[in-house]
Amino acid sequence: MAGPGFWGLPAGPILLLLLPQALPEGPLVFVAVVFRHGDRAPLASYPTDPHKEAITVLWPRGLGQLTGEGVRQQLELGRFLRNRYEAFLSPEYRREEVYVRSTDFDRTLESAQANLAGLFPEAAPGRPEAAWRPIPVHTVPVTEDKLLRFPTRSCPRYHELLREATEAAEYQTALEGWTDFLTHLENYTGLSLVGEPLRRAWKVLDTLMCQQAHGLPLPSWASPNVLRTLAQISALDIGAHVGPPRAAEKAQLTGGILLEAILANFSRVQRLGLPLKMVMYSAHDSTLLALQGALGLYDGHTPPYAACLGFEFRRHLGDPDEDAGNVTISLFYRNDSSGLPLPLNLPGCPGSCPLGRFRQLTAPARPPAHGVPCHGSREPATPAATVVPLLAGAVAVLAGLSMGLGLLAWRPGCLRAWGGPV
């Protein structure tokens, strides 16, 4: 997205921030990766969908479920992670080293399992029955997930911020320019689209793109130009959720929460001398979009299936105190399995970023220590924040640390994916 950066810094397409760079010097001490699930069936159909009568044949496991291609994508991602961290992780899974968290959806849970099958040989498909060992994936009920489902369901303040974005002149001008297009699309799809949330138009795009990816013929009206226009409409909707105005405040209620959790987990692991090396989050494109928004890196493109955003913490030799500025964070984004991952630069901190500087730059987008109120500007504040244990019970050595591994402040009922995870 063009325009001012989230913290008064120049912003532009994410590709302008991707500069070739070597991994920073110093030993790797902690990794967090957030990835989207693999290829799935469409989430829904539409009234005139020529394939709707064959849904049970085309998608035998059901709408929204992981496909065989999605499993393959995650296996490949897991093998990439094994290759990248061969010298960092133990050859076989050790529960004190790796913790895996997923949203409570079949496609993300299965994606996590497939990823782990690529990362650890004992979980790989084709192993002899006696040698095969499944690896645990942790989750919480959908209604209780305050970490990976964005943005808000019952957070008046967030809806105030979203309304401010959708009422802006730039947004309204773009929307008016698409009125005729959406009117025609109503006639083709049998859906009411004009004056409705733009996510409804996105669902049409999702159905068409899923069908096209699996070799199904599209209706004659679904031309490349129509698909491009639907993608532009989707980008406008996403931009309103994660971009200006007040992007940092939006992030405090969405992706900034996950960003804070990643930083808090690292600090707690280092402070307590815990053996945890990697945290993996299996989630949705909405999760990655919210996290990109919190980092100031959203570029108007939706993360593809199995896209992975990684945080690598490295310690420069000679100073054991992580608060003394010897720890750096490097970001990478893998959105194409055929190429190398793209190194990302946090706006204002090119290359590997010192931890203190990283914290300073992202502070406006992360929840303050006292928590962020979801109440609207005209409503009373919600009760004092409670805590969400991100990794409680992850490993036996940590069992006694009930308040360990990055507890995170949140306000009740604040988060969900916009319109539902995808």
From TrEMBL:
Keyword Transmembrane assigned: yes
GO MF annotation list: acid phosphatase activity; protein tyrosine phosphatase activity; receptor tyrosine kinase binding
SUPFAM superfamilies assigned: Phosphoglycerate mutase-like
Known EC number: 3.1.3.2
Signal peptide annotation: 1-24
Residue ranges of the TM segments: 387-410
Catalytic activity: a phosphate monoester + H2O = an alcohol + phosphate
Domain of life the protein comes from: Eukaryota
Major enzyme class: hydrolase
Alphabetized UniProt keyword annotations: Glycoprotein, Hydrolase, Membrane, Signal, Transmembrane, Transmembrane helix
One Gene Ontology cellular component annotation held by this UniProt entry: lysosome
Record-level GO BP terms: lysosome organization; negative regulation of ERBB4 signaling pathway; negative regulation of neuron projection development; negative regulation of protein processing; odontogenesis; regulation of neuronal synaptic plasticity
Keyword DNA repair: no
PANTHER family, per database record: ACID PHOSPHATASE-RELATED (PTHR11567), TESTICULAR ACID PHOSPHATASE (PTHR11567:SF145)
Family, per entry: Belongs to the histidine acid phosphatase family.
Protein name listed in UniProt: acid phosphatase
Species assigned in the record: Panthera leo (Lion)
Gene: ACP4
